[in-house]
UniProtKB/TrEMBL annotation, chain A:
Annotated SMART domains: RING, SAP
Name the record gives this protein: Postreplication repair E3 ubiquitin-protein ligase RAD18
This protein's record includes keyword Nucleus: yes
Keyword GTP-binding (UniProt): no
Stretches the record annotates as Disordered: 218-252
Organism (species): Wickerhamomyces pijperi (Yeast)
Automatic annotation (TrEMBL), chain B:
Pathway: Protein modification
Family the entry assigns: Belongs to the ubiquitin-conjugating enzyme family.
Domain of life: Eukaryota
Protein name: E2 ubiquitin-conjugating enzyme
Lineage: Eukaryota, Fungi, Dikarya, Ascomycota, Saccharomycotina
Catalysed reactions, semicolon-separated: S-ubiquitinyl-[E1 ubiquitin-activating enzyme]-L-cysteine + [E2 ubiquitin-conjugating enzyme]-L-cysteine = [E1 ubiquitin-activating enzyme]-L-cysteine + S-ubiquitinyl-[E2 ubiquitin-conjugating enzyme]-L-cysteine
GO molecular function: ATP binding; ubiquitin conjugating enzyme activity
EC number: 2.3.2.23
A Pfam family of this chain: UQ_con
Length: 357, 167
């Protein structure tokens, strides 16, 4: 991963300033966290009415028990999930790229040469499917969705690919509607394994099969999913099935215990290490490193519990590892900078001495 | 180094925003793309003040846990002002975290919090240039001069500005 693609993934509200609807700047800013300036991830509402990413506010409250905006006293226990807002952010993130293209002042002729005309027409009614796979690539961090959603999307991606391969056929045999559209309009999400299937298969043999076979990745599967079966099936018949992952978060899957803060002063290093190894975290490093590791994992974990789309704990661990290596790089970086800063200071001191003479 | 961490991503966003939509009289950006934690800034002296017509270079140095902790702002070279130390470092409430209160009379909401940003810091510094706060002075000599002999203070500032412009 080079720096260039990273920079492209870093968006900011001013993208809309030079478009036909500059006011979208406000919408874009309002959906962002005041602390990290990214789109809110697992937004939490404070009792003073402000909203931050769960991770950002938890990290801040570790050291300062106050609201960063109004400085009112604030504890983690005062935080409350804001589910609708989270869904709104996810939905907006999915359409942002398309929205930005649509409101651009210059009409971009990009679509015309690449896609055959008949495809454009075919795509029109189901246009909402096209931007969605891009969500995953827009923001690197977000590629770490939970497994089931990844599967949904790969299915969508596949159906999109197939559409392109059969496009010539479908031009020739106009009267026959493309097969894939049938699938997307009449497919449904299995309430047990969360995969997307054509409705006949889903209602016919799949559910029986799925109930018979215990789900291999049962990390998130819980009994409460059954209560959802009605709504998922009901929705499956509606044309907007493909949006289901956004509007119908798999909340029932989030049965996770939050981690608690540790009182480090009354904890020996061996005890701390055993806590870490219970969480399957590395136990190497200095005492200080162990404590910061636990603290950061606590934040990642608890923020993940707040999400409507919780990630697999494995992803959290790799996120933690990335964070730690970033911290180390940063530490080295500032050291180098320090040296440069010193030589700068010396130069400045000398020049001011000269000017005084 | 790719901008991976929270601090880098946020600094890059602020930079993007400042390049597209900077307030008047303010230019700021990272010294090099490899290190987003050091920025150079240019501030225009506010109109109607002795600093008018001056262009003041300053350096912002961000901590690795930005935005949890505030950056440091230093004028290079230092300028004569009650709230700027002799080494150029700016002493202004927005750059102080709420925990520490060196001068006891800063209201908490004027302090650093992660919701502040570079733009707000530089705007506060611009308003600090127009309205020094001698109650929490950093440069005692400048404070005295400002309070006791405003004319001499302003004359000194104007002559420093002329010198800095090579006039």
């Amino acid at each position: 991963m080079n720096g260039y693609t990273d920079i492209n993934s870093i968006t900011d509200p001013t993208d809309f300033k030079s478009t036909r609807v500059p006011k979208l700047f406000e919408v874009d800013s309002l959906l962002r966290c005041h602390i990290c300036k990214e789109f809110l991830s697992s937004p939490m509402l404070t009792h003073c009415g402000h909203t931050f990413c769960s991770g950002c506010i938890r990290r801040y409250l570790l050291n300062t028990p106050k609201c960063p905006i109004c400085s009112k006293e604030l504890r983690e226990s005062n935080l409350c999930r804001n589910v609708v807002l989270e869904q709104l952010v996810i939905s907006y993130k999915g359409l942002r790229k398309e929205l930005l293209e649509k409101v651009q002042i210059q009409e971009e002729p990009k679509n015309v040469p690449q896609v055959t005309e008949s495809l454009v027409i075919e795509n029109a009614p189901v246009a909402s499917t096209t931007p969605k796979p891009e969500v995953i690539y827009l923001d690197e961090e977000d590629s770490a969705f939970d497994d089931s959603i990844d599967e949904d999307l790969t299915i969508l991606l596949e159906s999109k690919k197939r559409k392109q391969t059969v496009s010539i056929d479908s031009i020739l045999k106009r009267p026959k509607p493309p097969l894939q559209r049938k699938i997307t309009t009449e497919s449904g999400t299995c309430p047990i394994c969360s995969k997307v299937f054509p409705i006949e298969i889903l209602m016919g043999r799949h559910i029986d099969e799925c109930l018979a076979v215990p789900k291999p990745s049962s990390n998130y599967a819980s009994n409460s999913t059954y209560t959802n079966s009605h709504t998922s099936l009901g929705k499956a018949k509606s044309p907007s099935t493909e949006d289901q992952s956004y509007y119908q978060p798999k909340e029932s899957n989030t049965v996770q215990q939050k981690l608690t803060k540790l009182d480090y002063s009354s904890l020996s290093t061996t005890q701390l290490k055993s806590k870490l190894s219970k969480l399957e975290l590395p136990t190497n490093g200095t005492r200080n490193e162990l404590e910061t590791r636990y603290n950061e994992f606590l934040i990642l974990w608890n923020a993940n519990c707040d999400s409507v789309q919780p990630k697999n704990p494995k992803l959290l661990r790799s996120q933690l590892a990335k964070w730690e290596s970033a911290i180390k790089v940063k530490a080295n970086g500032t050291e180098k900078l320090g040296k440069a800063g010193w030589s700068d200071l010396i130069r400045q001191a000398r020049s001011t001495m000269k000017s005084k003479d | 180094m790719p901008p991976k961490g929270t601090a880098q991503r946020r600094l890059l966003k602020e930079y993007q925003q400042l390049t597209k939509d900077a307030p008047e009289g303010i230019v700021a950006g990272p010294v090099s793309e490899d290190n987003l934690f050091v920025w150079d800034c240019l501030l225009e002296g506010p109109e109607g003040t002795p600093y008018e017509n001056g262009v003041f270079p300053a350096r912002l140095v961000f901590p690795s846990d930005y935005p949890l902790s505030p950056p440091k702002l230093t004028f290079t070279p230092a300028i004569l002002h009650p709230n700027i130390y002799a080494n150029g470092e700016v002493c202004i409430s927005i750059l102080h975290p709420p925990g520490e209160d060196p001068n006891q009379y800063e209201r908490a909401e004027e302090r650093w919090s992660p919701v502040q940003n570079v733009e707000k810091i530089l705007l506060s510094v611009m308003s600090m240039l127009s309205e020094p706060n001698v109650e929490s002075g950093a440069n005692i000599d400048a404070c005295k001069l400002w309070r006791d002999d405003r004319k001499a203070f302003e004359e000194q500032v104007r002559s420093d500005v002329r010198k800095s412009l090579g006039l």
